What we know:
By secondary structure, this protein is α/β, with parallel strands linked by helices. The chain is about 25% helix and about 20% strand. Strands 5-6-7-8-10-9 form a six-stranded mixed β-sheet. The chain has a five-stranded mixed β-sheet with strand order 4-3-2-1-11, with helices on one face.
Amino acid sequence: MKVWALSDPHLSFSQDKPMHIFGEHWREHWKKIAQCWKNRVAPEDVVLVTGDISWAWRLKDAMADLDWLHQLPGRHKLMVRGNHDLWWPKSEQEMAGLPSSLLLLTGEAVRVDGEVFCGTGGWLDPQDPYFEPLDDSPFRRELALLERALERAAGMESGNGIHVLIHFPPYTSRGKPTAFDALIHQHPVKTVTFGHFHLEEEWKVTPQGGIAGVHYTLASADYIGFAPVQLPI
Length: 233
Ligand SMILES: [Fe+2]
Ligand SMILES: [Fe+2]
């Protein structure tokens, strides 16, 4: 089994949302994603899709996007919520109606073969220049959810390390480690995968690769050229 990451696909098959207003590279970006995904990902692999999945506001409008991801190769697509994922299921019943290969993590952990994955959406850190007073409550809630996810994962893993999925990078947009990063370093974490950043000035200051035993991957679709990247596992 290989593990791949592709974040922030920003899909909108049920509504007209032209992504190329954000740059010519986004024009028909789903075609690039599908082609690269099919070339790289095998049926037994796992793909981490770390948020900003669909532009839809309601779950029923997101289904076209979720079905599209479901039909792409990969045994499981593990997902966390991005700040744009307003469609996110609000009940067990809604969760049960999702396509079978999609697994959404909000403070949970899951084991696939010998690998343990856990995650939540995360939030802006108080040190971030974009942080406002209204961000305080979701920041605290998400920090508690990450702690819960890591504790559950620590109880499931057997010395192999944990893979963390989080939409908001564990660094501020100026590249400073956040409270989420501090929590990550208190647990036996092997990899952290995230997205959210779409600006070159953010990409430039985001630490990546191996840092103090943790491997960081910024997987925003535009940053990785719309091709899933393989995690070191
Ligand atoms: Fe995004
Ligand atoms: Fe985002």
